[in-house]
Amino acid sequence: MKITFLKIFAFLLVVVGTYAYVGQLVPQFEEHPPAKQVITVQTPPQELASIGEELLRTKGGCLICHKVTDAGNERGPDLRHAAGEAAKRKPGMDVEEYLIESIVTPDAFIVPGYPKMMPSALKPPANLNMAEVKAVVAYLQSLGGTDITAKVQAADIAAAKKITILIEPIKADLGLGDAAIGVLQGPAFAFVNGAAQVAARVVQ
Predict the structure, then answer these.
(1) Engineered SS bond to 48: which of 73, 138, 158, 197, CB 3.0-4.6 Å?
(2) Residue among 35, 50, 33, 34 at smallest CA distance from 132
(3) How far, in Å, are 45, 78, 143, 183, 185 from residue 134 at the CA level?
(4) d(CA 192, CA 93)
(5) Residue 163's pLDDT band (boundaries 50, 70, 90)?
């Protein structure tokens, strides 16, 4: 019995030692999350469009109702045609203005054949800031084959930073999760962004 136990124990040691040895031979890789892309007033158009695509597919949640390929949801208009059709939607409004309005104030114009269902992207669940909205617009322009005219202004960046300054202490003090913070960001951003736009006009 004792000899059998020793044989089993020796076998286990050999197995464990073999795995440990092989494990040392395999190259070790440390995984890191993708670096957060920062939007600035100097962000080149194509890079801004790339950031916009990522926002559209992730944080913005746009593909829940829209599509950018042949396969996808059709509860909302096909975003491949958004920029191309923009100039025809509202006379006197250019492509960039129309796309921004469609994202920020979607009820201002409802595309015929589609229901009124989209919330403002400045509010939950998307909670985009204006710099991010313009990145999405840049992507839609790129997707539609039109010139990328969307440009982030200093007021957009300032408003986004103020939101972070306002929200983060609340999150830390109250121990709130990201979902709860999302509910606060919409109205907070609307207030700060409005104040930033007014300030920019006064300076001009």
Answers:
(1) 138
(2) 50
(3) 10, 19, 14, 22, 18
(4) 25
(5) low
What is the spatial distance between Cα 27 and Cα 164, in angstroms, rounded to a whole number? 40
Q: How is residue 197 written in tokens?
A: 């736009």
pTM score of the predicted model: 0.68
Q: In sequence order, which ranges of the chain are alpha helices (DSSP H)?
A: 2-25, 45-57, 82-89, 95-104, 130-143, 154-174, 178-203
**Rounded-to-integer distance, Cα 73 and Cα 69, Å:** 10
Please, what are the domains in the chain? 44-152 (1.10.760.10), 154-204 (no CATH)
Per-residue model confidence (pLDDT) at position 104: 97
Token pair recorded at residue 97: 């203005």
In 3D space, the residue among 82, 186, 88 whose CA is nearest the CA of residue 136 turns out to be 82
Task: Return d(Cα 12, Cα 8) in angstroms, integer.
Answer: 6
Rounded Cα–Cα distance for residues 204 and 192 (Å): 18
The three-class DSSP label of residue 143 is helix
